[in-house]
Amino acid sequence: ISDNQQNNKLKIHLIMKKYKKGLTVLFIIFGLTICHARKLPQSALYDFNLLLGRWKGSLTYLDYTSGKPYTMPADIEVRQLDKTNKFIFYNIYPNETSANSIDTISVSADGKYIDKALIKSRRKLKNGNVEIVAEEQGKDGNDNKNATFRHTYLISKTHYSKKKEVQFEGETNWIKRHEYSYTKKRGSGHG
How far is CA 107 from the centre of its chain? Predict the structure, then answer.
C-alpha cells in the first residue's frame, strides 16, 4: 500500500471517528430532550395530585373600580375526575355563598398546558414547594383590553397558592389581579 493510500485511509478513519462522536452527541441530546418532555406531564400531573382534598384560605383580588385590594375567606376542595388529567375545583366562599363556583382544570396530555395557558416554567424551590408559571392571552379590565395573563402556582403537600397577574398590551408592568392562598385541612386528601 502506498503512502497516499495509507494517508487516505487514515483521513477516512479520522473523519468517521468524528462523525461517530457527533452522532453520539446528537443521540444523547435527542434522548435527554425526550426524557425531559416525558417528565413534564408526569410532574405537572403529580403536582396537581398534591392538591386533592380540602383547603382553607383566602382570596385577595384587585377591585378595578376602586383600584384597591380586597381580601375575603375562601376555601376549596379539589377532586380528580376519575383517573384523568382533569381536576374539579369546588370554590367555597363562606361569607359570600352566592359566589361559590366549580371549575375544571386540565393538564394537557403532553404536560405543556394548564387549560389554555402554556407552562413557561416548572421548578422546585429551596423550601420544597413547586412553582409552575403559565401564560395565556385574553382580555381583561373594565375596558376589556387585550392582555397576557400569568398564572403562578405554588404547590406543596400543605400549602397551595395561585396568583393571576395581568399585563395589558403595550405595557411592561404586571398587575396582580388576584391571589388565592390555602392551607390543607388536617386529614384531608393526599399528603
Answer: 9
Q: Could you read off the pLDDT of 10-64 as tens digits, one per residue?
A: 667 667 676 666 555 555 555 555 444 444 445 788 899 999 999 999 999 988 7
How many angstroms separate the CA atoms of 29 and 25, rounded?
Answer: 6
Distance, CA of 175 to CA of 182 (rounded, Å): 21
C-alpha–C-alpha distance, residues 88 and 184, integer Å? 16
Query: Scanning the structure block, which residue is given the C-alpha cell 383547603?
Result: 55
Which grid cell is 166?
395581568
Which pTM does this prediction carry? 0.74
Task: Confirm if 172 and 67 have CB atoms less than 8 A apart.
Answer: no
d(CA 19, CA 14): 9
- pLDDT class for 67, splitting at 50, 70, 90? confident
Q: What is the arrangement of strands in the sheet containing 145-155, beginning at the earlier edge strand? A: 101-106, 86-92, 68-80, 53-63, 175-184, 159-168, 145-155, 130-140, 117-124, 113-114
Residue 8: predicted pLDDT: 66
CA 134/CA 112 separation, integer angstroms: 9
For β-strands 101-106 and 86-92, DSSP reports them as antiparallel
